[in-house]
Amino acid sequence: IFRTVSGVAIDKDQACVAIMDVPDQPGIAARITQALCEENIVIDMIMQSFHPTIGLNNITFTVNDSDLDQTINSLSALKDELRAREVLADPDIAKVSLIGAGLVGQPTIPAKLFGVLGANGINIKMISSSEMKITCVVARQQADRAAALIHQAFELDAVCDTRA
Amino acid sequence: IFRTVSGVAIDKDQACVAIMDVPDQPGIAARITQALCEENIVIDMIMQSFHPTIGLNNITFTVNDSDLDQTINSLSALKDELRAREVLADPDIAKVSLIGAGLVGQPTIPAKLFGVLGANGINIKMISSSEMKITCVVARQQADRAAALIHQAFELDAVCDTRA
Ligand SMILES: C[C@@H](O)[C@H](N)C(=O)O
Ligand SMILES: C[C@@H](O)[C@H](N)C(=O)O
C-alpha cells in the first residue's frame, strides 16, 4: 500500500464521556455497551487503555451532542450497579482527524500531526488511531485552526467537514 | 453505506506500552512521538482518553514485540524529562479486531462483540474503535478462542491472521 495522507476531517457535533474505575472483569464492557444499545445511543471512538490500578479500568467513548444527557443518565445508573467511581463528560470537543492509508507504518506521521498542534499551542485532549485515521480531540473553538494547520503541514488540498 | 461486518483479524506480534501522568499541555504528545520516531519505532493504536486528574494525562500505544525493550528505554528517559509518573508495558497481548464498514452507526455491533467475549469469560484488556475496525486487546493465549467466538457470533466465513 502506498502510504499516503489524503485529507483532514472535522466533527464538531460530538461529546466525550467516560465511566471511571469499573471492575476489570469479563462482561463489564458488554454490560455498558448493552445498556447504551438499549437506549439506541450511537457510540464512537471507544477507548480503554492502561489503568494504574490492577483490577480497575476506565471506558471512554464519544456520542452525539444530542445524546449526551441521556448517556450520562444511563451511565450514572450503571455506575451504582457496577460500583464504578464516577462518570465524566466533556461537551467542549471537536474531533480533527487525519485521513489516509497505512498511517501506522510511518512514525513520522503521528509525530508531524501532534507536532504541528503542539507547536501552535493547541492542546490535544484525546487521541485515537488506526491505519486509516488518526483522530485528535481538541476544544471545539480550536478545531478550525487545528484542521487548517494540519492541512498546511501535510500539504493537503481540502479540509472536509464530515462526520468521520 | 451498507453497514456490514466482514471479518475478524488477529495480531499476536504486538505489545502495549503507556507513559502515565504526563503533563496535559501542548507539545507533550509531540515530544513523545518525536522521540519514538527518532528511534524508528512504529506505533499503532495510539490512545489518550480521560484522566481523573486535571492537568495530567496518559498516552498508550502498541509496538511490535521486537521493539518493546527499545520503546521502554526511550519512554523511561522521557519520563524523567517530562516528570511523568511511570512507564507501563504489557507484552501478553493480542489484538482481535472486528473488521467492516459503518461499524459505528449500529450500537448492536459493539454490544454483540463485547457481549460474546464477556459471556465466555474472556477479559478485554484494551479497546480501540473506528468506523471500520473495533479492536479488543486480550491475553495472547485467548486470541484464537476470542476470534473463533466472534467469527461465530457474527456468522463470518473466515478468520484472517493479519497485521490489522
Ligand atoms: C473493563 C472491561 O473492558 C472488562 N475488562 C471487560 O472485559 O469487560
Ligand atoms: C497529553 C498530551 O496529549 C498533551 N495534551 C498534548 O497536547 O500534547
Topology:
Two copies of one chain form a homodimer.
Chain A: E1 4-11, E2 14-23, H1 28-38, E3 43-48, E4 56-64, H2 68-82, E5 86-90, E6 94-101, H3 108-119, E7 126-129, E8 133-138, H4 143-153, E9 159-161
Parallel strand pairs in A: 1-9
Antiparallel strand pairs in A: 1-6, 2-4, 2-5, 3-4, 6-8, 7-8
Helix pairs in contact in A: 1-2, 3-4
One threonine sits at the interface of chains B and A.
What does it look like?
The structure is a homodimer of 164-residue chains. Chain A has four helices and nine strands. Chain A is α+β, with helices and mostly antiparallel strands. Chain A has a five-stranded mixed beta sheet, with helices on one face. The first copy, chain A, has a four-stranded antiparallel beta sheet with strand order 3-4-2-5, with helices on one face. In chain A, helix 1 (28-38) packs antiparallel against helix 2. The longest helix of chain A is centred in the middle third of the chain and has 15 residues, at 68-82. Chain A is elongated, with a radius of gyration of 17 Å. At the A-B interface, strand 2, helix 1, strand 3, strand 4 and strand 5 of A face strand 2, helix 1, strand 3, strand 4 and strand 5 of B. Strand 7 (126-129) of chain A pairs antiparallel with strand 3 of chain B. The structure holds threonine (THR) (2 copies). One threonine sits between chains A (22, 24-30, 48, 57) and B (118, 123-124).
